[in-house]
Design goal:
The complex is a heterodimer of chains A (256) and B (666). In chain A, 62% of the residues lie in helices and 3% in strands. By secondary structure, chain A is an all-alpha fold. The chains are: A mainly alpha (256), B alpha+beta (666).
Chain lengths: 256, 666
């Protein structure tokens, strides 16, 4: 059992106030039954009594630009965040749609190829992107934003004709319905080639989306989104390079 | 006074005191509790909340984390979570200061509404309550630690907090320095403090406002000129502060880099007293050349001056830190013969067959005394010769079939071993679930001989953690127990784990501390970012909760003598990624630690150990006035035994023990 510790943030207003109340009540009690209570561990009283002897209180400061003086901020300062940009929300909504297609593509692997390399790569991509979809949904919901962006919510509720699908704006790099159809129909080495080419195109689009985000004024400043966009960028950049190497090894490439 | 009223009064007063203490929300620590959550109830609620990752099935032939460990299923809570420890005692938690959080722990607090409003989030009943609390969990996350004298410097995505740890049982906050930009990794050297900044909200003037987004076009008005994204006020790189006045740090320089600084490493050249060097590891996007001339995100085939595939070296003149600047951008992934920049990203040519790609280092640990650095560089672990700090040269590179992301590295004290970590999932994910393989997101132990790294074994904190606990290998430091290689390490919400890697093929856990998840229903980012030993105690930067201070307690895996021997090592500064060689004084307590180890490994006969302990006791209790001759005779026989020892580890212990017995100091 750990002792109650009163030194934490020893001078925060909340704690000082609480200790004040404790001290008052304790004083009352102590006055009445001081002798009888000699065995009680009156740690609150002790903490309150030693507080005035404590050294200087912590300061909150904010440095200036290099060479400029440092400002002292009020001790009651609490943290604030930079503004959320519309582009941040659109990035997340768009990337969910983008990732969903990657998961859809990897789901085809099981029944269409025996390539160990492609299966292992697909498992990793599927795992990562499914996790990231969950993360993006959480990010949007926790900010009161719809998970489905305005340009894509029709997709969920209406059955569209092939023509409508073709015309629908896809996120950068996404495979067209025709490309997806070709992938579904392929198997063996042909599938491996289409899958790798398709996923390289798909990942390339994600890199473009990250670049667009950072090229937009005021976007990408939110820490979780920044961290996520950085992971997408470095992770998919690496996977593109790995897939290019796999593609070079495929015999079917020469036949084309 | 009769007995009954006294007892009643005692109880009443005790209850009153207890109640007041609790309502004051003071630092009440709950005893270690192991209440498991109600699975059925939890399952239903999880379905309503996106963002909880369920572990996929364990890959064939692999072993998961241990769900029978007492660390699995601890009671959840931010400040009332269940705790369990072995070989470690938790001394103190200093909560994150108000200046570094939104100022409330109550989802219904108007402050939450106000904060959400200020960043454009509507006050919507659609937002589940626990979600409101996790807003910006990363924006105010505690990060890495540095130490100097009696001060501890805790980095944060929002600035730095400086604590006085002269008395680790009564540590206190001294300075909260607001200066956002993430991750806020810190190092200290004499009167200088260095800080990493990588995010686009970083400003030269430490402002918290970031940069304004483009306003929505007014209805009917023509589309105006869009705001330019580049800004001369933006700062991404390494800040340098003068901390001569610990309560008034002054920014003296801000050295801009193309990818910002995710982490940095202080490099002290033993031959150059006038300058220190900073290795910058940038992992983020390359900014536009309109913002910082010369930056280029093109591939090396298109632009030989690409900002990718390199690290940066900053030279800091100690007497004039304001003149610090980037003096080199070493191409550490280059093939020295062909000049190809991306030599470690050529698919399957390196390592054990798994394709790898490296265009960045995540973290570099330097061991200047040995002229070596170990770089954890996304797709590879690399070894660098840094005898000329401005021109590091790659000596070796390794790959690993189970590694996702090479994150950090540390050397053993004698430089014969390197521990790498794999930050699978980036630290934001739950990766210690029962179905997560125990060789993914783990430490990989390599032996280092003749500048070649050779794989030996893996170590992953063995306990399973829940779906809502972010957990993977993270930052740690050596614990200076003589005669053994011990590392204390942070595992995010997996807690703190001490690993003995004396035998790199069979590393084992010898102590731990863990709390339950912050929230049972959703993954709220938290846990230990860095856990480091500094002058006798273990300090842990808890991302969400604050600063934890712990101490080692004796167990069957670690004796009091070994702990006391570790405490004899004192340093004046500690930057864990700038490794200093640990040197133990010739104190008899260090000798006793070696004896305990030789007893544990049964390297010496029991009667000989008892006789030596008696002789040490005699010498110690007389203040080294008596029994020196006896110690010296033991020293001679130990040196003979050392050469016949069954293994090198025990042989070295006997040698070191003999040295102390020959020349003991008080």
């Amino acid at each position: 059992m750990k002792a109650v510790n009163f030194d934490v943030l020893g001078d925060s207003p909340r704690i000082t106030k609480a200790c004040g109340v404790i001290a008052m009540s304790v004083c009352l009690l102590v006055t009445i039954v001081a002798v009888t209570f000699s065995s009680l561990p009156l740690r609150c009283v002790l903490a309150q009594q030693t507080a005035p002897a404590a050294p200087a209180k912590p300061v909150v400061v904010q440095p200036g630009a290099p060479g400029k003086p440092t400002k002292v901020l009020p001790r009651t300062t609490t943290a604030k965040l930079p503004p959320l940009a519309k582009a941040d929300v659109q990035f997340m909504q768009g990337m969910i749609v983008h990732h969903e297609q990657a998961v859809e593509m990897t789901a085809l692997i099981e029944s269409r190829t025996e390539s160990k390399d492609v299966r292992s790569l697909g498992a990793r991509i599927s795992h990562t992107q499914a996790d990231e979809i969950a993360f993006m949904k959480r990010w949007l919901v926790s900010r009161g934003q719809p998970v489905v962006g305005a340009s894509h919510d029709m997709h969920k509720h209406h059955k569209m004709s092939q023509d409508q699908m073709d015309q629908m704006a896809l996120m950068p790099g996404m495979l067209t319905p025709k490309q997806m159809e070709a992938l579904r129909k392929a198997s063996g080495e042909e599938f491996d080639r289409l899958f790798l080419e398709g996923m390289i195109q798909h990942h390339g689009g994600a890199l473009d989306m990250v670049k667009d985000l950072h090229d937009t004024a005021g976007a990408g400043q939110e820490a979780e989104l920044f961290n996520f966009a950085t992971d997408v960028d470095s992770g998919q950049r690496a996977e593109i390079r790995i897939m290019q190497a796999m593609l070079e090894k495929l015999p079917s490439k020469e036949k084309r | 006074m009769n007995q009954l009223p006294t007892t009643t009064l005692r109880l009443l007063a005790a209850a009153l005191l207890l109640g007041l203490c609790l309502t004051g929300k003071l630092q009440a620590q709950t005893p270690p509790a192991q209440e498991s959550t109600k699975p059925a109830e939890q399952k239903k609620e999880e379905q309503d909340l996106p963002g909880v990752e369920k572990a996929p099935p364990l890959p064939a032939g692999m072993t998961g984390s241990d769900a029978a460990d007492p660390r699995f299923n601890l009671k959840p809570g931010l400040f009332d979570a269940g705790e369990v420890a072995k070989g470690l005692r938790h001394i103190q938690l200093l909560k994150k200061p108000d200046a570094f959080q939104l100022g409330t722990e109550d989802a219904d607090d108007p402050k939450v509404k106000k904060t959400l409003g200020s960043i454009g989030v509507p006050d919507s009943p659609m937002i589940p309550k626990p979600f409101k609390l996790v807003m910006a969990q990363l924006a105010f996350a505690n990060s890495d630690l540095a130490f100097k004298g009696k001060y501890l410097f805790m980095g944060n995505f929002y600035g730095v907090n400086i604590y006085d740890i002269a008395d680790p049982t009564k540590a206190k906050l001294v300075t909260s320095m607001v200066c956002p930009g993430g991750q806020g990794d810190v190092s200290v050297y004499k009167n200088l403090m260095f800080m990493s900044v990588e995010m686009p909200n970083g400003r030269l003037d430490c402002g918290i406002q970031g940069f304004p987004p483009a306003p929505p076009p007014a209805a009917g008005a023509a589309q105006g000129q869009p705001l330019p994204a580049p800004s001369k006020e933006r700062f991404r790189g390494v800040r340098i502060f003068d901390i001569t006045d610990i309560r008034n740090p002054k920014q003296v320089a801000a050295v801009q880099t193309c990818r910002g600084s995710h982490t940095h490493t202080l490099v002290v050249d033993p031959k150059d007293k006038n300058n220190v060097y900073i290795y910058v590891s940038g992992t983020s996007f390359v900014r536009q050349s309109e913002e910082l001339p010369g930056c280029s995100a093109e591939g090396p085939d298109k632009d030989p001056n690409t900002s990718l595939f390199r690290i940066e070296v900053i030279k800091v003149p100690v007497a004039a830190p304001q003149t610090a600047k980037v003096i080199a951008s070493p191409r550490v992934f280059m093939d020295a013969r062909t000049g190809v920049l991306n030599a470690l990203s050529s698919g399957t040519t390196h390592g054990t067959g798994k394709p790898a790609f490296s265009d960045q280092c995540h973290d570099i640990t330097v061991y200047s005394e040995k002229g070596l650095a170990a770089g954890a560089c996304s797709g590879n672990g690399i070894l660098l010769d840094i005898k000329d700090p401005a021109n590091p040269k790659r000596l070796d590179a390794v790959n690993d079939p189970n590694y996702a992301y090479w994150h950090s590295a540390s050397f053993s004290n004698d430089g014969s071993k390197v521990v790498f970590t794999d930050e699978w999932g980036g630290g934001m994910g739950a990766r210690c679930r029962p179905n997560d393989p125990n060789v993914w997101g783990a430490d990989a132990l390599f032996s280092l001989k003749d500048n070649k790294l050779t794989f030996a074994g893996y170590y992953k904190m063995p306990a399973a953690q829940g779906n809502t606990e972010n957990c993977v290998a993270h930052n740690g430091s050596l614990v200076p127990v003589p005669g053994r290689d011990i590392k204390v390490q942070a595992w995010y919400q997996g807690g703190i784990s001490l690993m003995d890697f004396t035998d790199t093929k069979h590393p084992k856990e010898i102590a731990y501390f863990d709390r339950g998840p912050i929230d049972p229903k959703m993954l709220v980012l938290g846990g230990s970012w860095s856990a480091y030993w500094y002058n006798g105690h273990i300090y842990s930067a808890e991302i969400a909760r604050g600063l934890d201070i712990l101490e080692l307690t004796p167990s069957e895996s670690l004796t009091q003598n070994e702990i006391d021997a570790a405490k004899t090592v004192r340093v004046t500064e500690l930057n864990v990624q700038s490794q200093q060689r640990i040197v133990w004084p010739n104190k008899l307590v260090v000798a006793k630690a070696y004896l305990d180890q030789l007893e544990r490994s049964q390297a010496l006969p029991a009667d000989q150990i008892t006789a030596m302990r008696d002789a040490i006791q005699t010498a110690e209790s007389s203040g080294l006035a008596k029994g020196r001759a006896k110690l010296q005779s033991f020293a001679r026989s130990l040196k003979e035994n050392a050469s016949n020892a069954q293994n090198a580890v025990d042989g070295n212990r006997m040698q070191a023990l003999a040295e102390i017995l020959q020349r003991p100091v008080k």
